[in-house]
Amino acid sequence: MIYDNGDWRNWRKYCGLINKLDAFRKKRRMADIAVDDLTVDLLTSFDNFLHKWENERESGKLLHPNTIEVQFNILRTLVHRAIEVGIMEASKDPFLIFKYKGVKTTKEKLSDTEMERIIALELEEGSLIWHCKNYFLFSYYCAGIRAADLIQHRWRNVTENGRLHYQMGKNHKDRDLLLVDQALDILRYYHNDDVKQDDYIFPLLDNDAPFAKFVTQADKDRIKPVLRHQLYQQISAKNALINKYLKKIAEKAEITTNLTMHISRHAFAHIAQEAGAESSAIKNILGHSNLATTERYMGSFDTSKTDNTLRTLFKKKAAFKHSQQEEADKALSKEEQAIELLKGMTPEQIMAVISAINK
Length: 359
Prior knowledge:
Blueprint: H1 8-27, H2 40-50, H3 65-84, H4 112-120, H5 128-141, H6 147-152, E1 163-167, E2 174-178, H7 181-190, H8 217-221, H9 225-252, H10 261-274, H11 279-286, H12 291-299, H13 304-343, H14 347-358
Helix pairs in contact: 1-3, 5-9, 5-10, 11-12
């Protein structure tokens, strides 16, 4: 049920949950965790356990609340599948009571200047870090191709008229992209007269591996679980390797953003938005299933409206404060003039002025 369906991203999430559940089981000295064991009390204990779990990606830190939310989302999916096939009674679903909500975060992005620094970064040609820069930029130039798709791209996906045509692993949607000159320049480095149509474009997966003969998405849907497991392990390892070197690239380019392959997707979306591209066009090129997803995606980048509101608001406040100061200065000026006038008058004249004011 875990390995037979879904893409690499789901497989990785399921594996992460299994590892954490197994560690939880061992700590509680349980022989196994059966469906009937999934109660509200057990989920609450698992929640407490996860809050003490060290983040594997960031040493010294604990799991992010949103990562914990992912674990419970997957577990809830498994519970609902168990109910569908009759393994669990619907009335015993612990998620009817147990709820977990992560926190809202802002998607990381790269500015035009930061992207230019990455592009201009000089690295030793042919080195591993140089290749990783190519992978990141190729993804960026192709509207943020997901890492798992890029790793599995083959020369058959490149058409004679300079386009990239493939089926996305996440949602199986067809994607047909124009290869801009910068992307073609990267491809030229990896192409030679000996390459075959079914060879992988980038030197990340082994062309002779057993899973390599499953070329199309339809082929991959029929792949045996053990081979799919091997393929997903390789994709996961290569993605981790690329991200490791992207962090080094970020350091060299003096970029503080946590640079990963997925950030290329954010970078493209942000720069497309800044260039004035319509949300519907960005939706299509990113391969989102609906516009709401794209708008949520873009909303975390678009701070222009709030920026303008703050500038206008505090500009008005500053202008109002300046106006008040001018009025105070004018009032003070009139008072000073009156004092100077009174200084030149006799006591009798001053009393006459006061008497006239009182009338």
